[in-house]
């Protein structure tokens, strides 16, 4: 009983203890632990959520802390049991909750996802009346909560299983007619009997893997940390060494310790706006085969290091973002393996502040050389369509997962002529802001430039979908911490993670290579089935319903300045038409270079790292679009291409589209048009 005073206190609905505070007595003990403890918001001591005036201000939480402090190396599970007040209106049922509660940003915790599977399995066959069991994160259940003991055990001490049980006390239900007692009985025995058995069995079964898992999370270097054999919990013993310098009663704040050893990501409660501020970008230029192998290992073994781009050839950089607690060991690794690299410190500090754009837009109208919100983009294309009805038709394709209307911009001087179509989409990857910017610039030039009407629009129609993944796009604009989000924002049906890599979700040779099957993978999760995402379904439908007329498909991405063609799913062979694909790409690259831009590196998409389920393979393989490309725009700025450079770069890239148009017209328009235009 962690809160005996509170239980003895004669007040209904009392959550806190009763220690004297300024206005009202009591601290919410499960908000008083030093993990993202809430010091930014002033919550009155009269609130049932009052977190105390400092972490561990209370004797009760100190007592629990002491247990962790002395016994953490032996603790494999911490279970925090709560009851849930019954109220028919807010009834949520039973729950097993796991970290984290202090941030929406969840890492992939395989053991909890597996555990959820076990619990689901255990209760599947039980016959209940109105009960439901949720297995999810603290955040999903409560929203942001700060200073919770379950987060403390997990984040600070690395306790492998840290869980909150929320039990529904049906026995307290009044007037719950005849089967009240039966319900209470079922709750305790049928549900919790099963859950507890499943949880304990799973913990027991995985205990032999736990040591391995703990080790894999270590910041380690063989010469620096010589771990003794038979020491069950090596990481934890390192913490103890630091703690031992101080007196037991008044030891260094755990936040401080964990900052030193890097267990904890310096994310404050609910505010995590600076995640990347102290990250370091490494651009590694591999020069030999073995280095590629090491880079590959890096990606798979460690999910705190983010690989932004992979090399497509020798001396083409692999770009890696390294968190501050990994910096030293990563640099050592780089030196040991003779990596040729350069680096950029405090990476996140160069990120755009997303709040600027809307304000400026109000003052100056839509500037094509800026990054805009999805709403502003929609407004822009609607305004363009209403000003130029003779040229632009908008087709509503449907809604994104979160309900954003997606509109295809169709530009044609003669929509009924049956012209070949160039279909351009952009922004399937949320963070690649320059891609939607380019798509909008394309619309802008095609419509506003009188020369373009004579050239690019002659005998060719253009379909442009400027933001394929609007939910993800808006998410990257919501804070600097979310700036590097790539996937969609759909909720996984099988885990608590969000998003699918749209460009691994297309249904041609789906998931045969280069994808993750883990919904929590931040980069390349292929979805639980092809076209699981409404966004990719919409692009598919555009392709299939216009398959006879689309002669060129270009998917705009960032970054690396590559122009790649099918196949993406394999490096084993090329399509038999590859020479045509290759030669058109080189003409486009030449045109961009002639305009002062960087030439593209031209190759097949899968040559260096095969990845299946891309839109370019689907267009080429399933919709039989004869020319299909993925265009990776810009190089040298990763995903944060500076807004100030759009003005010079977008027009250079436009010249590539001009070259595309002229080739497509020459090959596919009828002869009369071909003779007129050149
Ligand atoms: Zn991309």
From TrEMBL:
It holds the Pfam family Propep_M14. Residues 1-186, 370-664 form the Peptidase M14 domain. One of its GO terms (biological process) is proteolysis. GO terms for cellular component: extracellular space. InterPro entries: CARBOXYPEPT_ZN_1, M14A-like_propep, M14A_act_pep, Peptidase_M14. One of its GO terms (molecular function) is metallocarboxypeptidase activity. Keywords: Carboxypeptidase, Disulfide bond, Hydrolase, Metal-binding, Metalloprotease, Protease, Secreted, Signal, Zinc. The keyword Electron transport does not apply. SMART domains: Zn_pept. Involved in the digestion of the blood meal. Belongs to the peptidase M14 family. This is Carboxypeptidase B. It comes from Papilio xuthus (Asian swallowtail butterfly).
């Amino acid at each position: 009983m962690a809160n005996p005073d509170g239980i003895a206190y004669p007040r209904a609905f009392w959550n806190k203890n009763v220690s004297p505070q300024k206005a009202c007595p009591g601290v919410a003990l499960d908000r008083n632990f030093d993990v993202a403890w809430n010091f930014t918001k002033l919550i009155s001591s009269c609130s049932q959520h009052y977190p105390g005036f400092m972490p561990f201000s209370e004797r009760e939480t100190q007592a629990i802390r002491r247990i962790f402090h002395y016994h953490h190396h032996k603790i494999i599970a911490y279970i925090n049991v709560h009851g849930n007040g019954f109220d028919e209106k807010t009834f949520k049922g039973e729950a097993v909750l796991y970290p984290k509660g202090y941030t929406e940003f969840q890492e992939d915790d395989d053991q909890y996802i597996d555990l959820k599977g076990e619990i689901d399995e255990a209760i599947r066959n039980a016959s209940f009346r109105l009960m439901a069991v949720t297995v999810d994160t603290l955040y999903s259940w409560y929203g942001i909560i700060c200073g919770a003991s379950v987060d403390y055990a997990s984040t600070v001490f690395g306790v492998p299983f840290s869980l909150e049980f929320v039990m529904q006390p049906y026995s307290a239900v009044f007037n719950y007619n005849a089967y009240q007692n039966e319900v209470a009985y079922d709750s305790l025995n049928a549900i919790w009997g099963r859950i507890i058995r499943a949880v304990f069995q799973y913990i027991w079964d995985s205990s032999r893997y736990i040591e391995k898992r703990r080790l894999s999370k270590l910041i380690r270097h063989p010469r620096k940390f010589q771990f003794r054999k038979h020491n069950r919990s090596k990481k934890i013993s390192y913490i103890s060494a630091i703690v031992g310098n101080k007196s037991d009663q008044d030891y260094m704040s755990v936040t401080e310790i964990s900052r030193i050893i890097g267990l904890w990501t310096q994310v404050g409660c609910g505010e995590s706006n600076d995640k990347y501020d102290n990250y370091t970008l490494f651009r590694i230029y591999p020069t030999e085969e073995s280095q590629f192998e090491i880079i590959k290992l890096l990606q798979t073994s460690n999910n705190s290091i983010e690989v932004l781009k992979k090399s497509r050839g020798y001396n083409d950089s692999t770009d890696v973002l390294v968190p501050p607690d990994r910096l030293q060991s990563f640099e050592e690794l780089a030196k040991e393996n003779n990596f040729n690299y350069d680096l950029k410190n405090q990476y996140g500090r160069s990120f755009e502040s997303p709040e600027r754009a809307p304000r400026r837009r109000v003052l100056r109208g839509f500037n094509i050389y800026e990054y805009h919100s999805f709403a502003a983009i929609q407004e822009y294309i609607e305004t363009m369509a209403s000003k130029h009805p003779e040229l632009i038709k908008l087709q509503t394709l449907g809604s994104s997962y979160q309900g954003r209307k997606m509109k295809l911009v169709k530009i044609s001087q003669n929509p009924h002529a049956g012209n070949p179509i160039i279909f351009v989409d952009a922004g399937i990857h949320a963070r690649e802001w320059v891609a939607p910017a380019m798509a909008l610039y394309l619309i802008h030039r095609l419509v506003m430039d009188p020369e373009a009407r004579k050239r690019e629009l002659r005998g060719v129609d253009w379909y442009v979908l400027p933001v394929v993944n609007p939910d993800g796009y808006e998410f990257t604009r919501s804070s600097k911490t979310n700036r590097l989000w790539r996937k969609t924002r759909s909720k996984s049906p099988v885990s608590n993670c969000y998003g699918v890599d749209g460009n691994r979700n297309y249904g041609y040779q789906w998931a045969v290579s280069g994808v993750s099957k883990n919904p929590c993978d931040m980069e390349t999760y292929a979805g639980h089935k092809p076209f699981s995402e409404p966004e990719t379904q919409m692009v598919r439908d555009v392709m299939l319903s216009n398959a006879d007329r689309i002669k060129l498909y270009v998917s705009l991405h960032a970054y690396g300045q590559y122009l790649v063609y099918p196949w993406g799913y394999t490096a084993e062979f090329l399509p038999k038409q590859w020479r045509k694909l290759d030669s058109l790409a080189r003409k486009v690259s030449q045109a961009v270079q002639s305009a002062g831009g960087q030439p593209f590196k031209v190759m097949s998409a899968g040559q260096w790292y095969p990845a299946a389920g891309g839109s370019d393979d689907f267009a080429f393989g399933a919709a039989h679009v004869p020319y299909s490309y993925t265009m990776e725009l810009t190089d040298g700025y990763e995903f944060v291409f500076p807004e100030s450079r759009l003005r010079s770069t977008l027009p250079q890239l436009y010249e590539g589209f001009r070259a595309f148009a002229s080739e497509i017209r020459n090959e596919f328009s009828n002869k009369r048009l071909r003779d007129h235009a050149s």
